[in-house]
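Predict the 3D structure for this chain.
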Amino acid sequence: MQQRAYQRTSSNPMLNEERIRALSETTGQTAMTANGAVNKTTILLMIVFAGALVGWNSPLGSFTLVSAFGALIIAIITAFKPSIAPITAPIYAILEGLLLGGISSFLEQSYPGIAFQAIVGTISVFFIMMILYRTGAIKVTDRFRSIIVSAIMGIMATYLISFVLSFFMQVPLFTGGWLAIGFSAFVIIIAAFSLLLDFDMIERSETFGAPKYMEWYCAFSLLVTLVWLYFEILRLLSMLRGRE
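Done. Predicted structure below.
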């Protein structure tokens, strides 16, 4: 009964019924807590900040490509094997910090203050969604979860197709036109709603006694969403300011 309930509330599509059963049957491990997940998230954010400082003061090309592909690989590995999150989550945080700092510094040269605006925007969205979740103004139901996960998959597919097409033609989503601006705004909305799935996963993981390492996995999942949200806000701001 708990396995089915936990599966329905998980925001990670990789955590299917069989894998949840395996997690539930893990022996000899202390159960995770929501406070533990919050503490791990704080640690990861500090690592991101440290990495961002290095990336900010380094040439853009030094870390961008390696960090981007490295972070993607680490994220995929962690999604398939949550038990290694205590190791992979900090590595992911370092790589994303380098990438975040490098890109932010590059855009800052053309649009002074844009990094600060993106940080404020990300923090504001985070607390707004936290309030909406804690007050029950928006409830994470099966239908809500299905819609958001489907939207995320659609966005990722659009990213991939647009990236491939960009080698052969000019892609509207990358040109900074109104279509690109509208799509970016839509992505920010979906990323914001994704935070609700992360909050719900942390709460439900504690309720159903998930293993201790899930604190790191939940923190990793929340960090992925926050980084995604920041980059998309940064992208939207750069397009809007580029039209001035």
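The CA atoms of residues 83 and 213 lie 6 Å apart.
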